[in-house]
Amino acid sequence: MKDVALLADLVAYVASSVRKAVAGLSREELTWQPDAEGNSIGIIVWHFSRWLDVLTVRVYGGRPALEEQWFKRGWAQKTGYDPRGMGYLGLGALTGYTWAEVVAVPFLEADDLLMYLDQVSEALRQHLLWLPEGALDRPAPGLQDGRTLYQRTRSILAGCFGHLGEIEALEAMQKRAKERGAR
């Protein structure tokens, strides 16, 4: 298996795993927080979906934010939310947000969250499969810090898998909280 095919498979795998964990969750389950400033499942899924979107368009392609799925597929218009200029490097992917900025991220139902995740993961997967041999060893054109496409991709995918574990932990915490409340 080529390196790009392996990464494309990992993108599909994390999206599929999140789909299984999140499909059918209620608004209450998506917004539940373990404490007043803890991330909810909904915000976690939006966060790493945004990173996949940013990775594909701005990091890999060096293209403007308006070419991200968030804008091209009408999510910004539908929600009235434009994340550009916020957080780490102004990328609008939740990293580096203040708590007030986190709270301003719009709620998306499970189906919408998963639709956005599917759109961004498929765009990244296709982009990876179109890369020529050796492209992953080149500097990322969108962020001029000397890190290669592979290093950027590895970092973001590792974060996605970490967040998948976070989602599973939050689901277990919710279940225990409900059981304690039922007693």
Walk me through this protein's architecture.
With 183 residues, the chain is an all-alpha fold. It has a single domain, classed as dinb family like domain (Four Helix Bundle (Hemerythrin (Met), subunit A)). The chain has eight helices and no strands. The longest helix has 34 residues.
Roughly what percent helix?
55-70%
What would the CATH topology be?
Four Helix Bundle (Hemerythrin (Met), subunit A)
**Count the helices. How many?**
8
Give me the count of strands. 0
**Chain-averaged pLDDT:** 94
Q: What kind of sheet is the major sheet?
A: none
Tally of domains? 1
Question: What is the rounded distance between the termini?
Answer: 52 Å
Q: Summarize the helix and strand pattern as letters.
A: HHHHHHHH
CATH superfamily, please?
dinb family like domain
Residue windows where pLDDT falls under 50 for at least 5 positions:
none
List the helices and strands and how they pair.
Elements: H1 3-22, H2 27-31, H3 41-60, H4 69-72, H5 75-79, H6 99-103, H7 110-130, H8 149-182
Helix pairs in contact: 1-7, 1-8, 3-7, 3-8
Quickly describe the structure:
The chain is mainly alpha-helical and 183 residues long.
Defining key terms:
183 residues; globular; Four Helix Bundle (Hemerythrin (Met), subunit A); mainly alpha; 8 helices; 62% helix
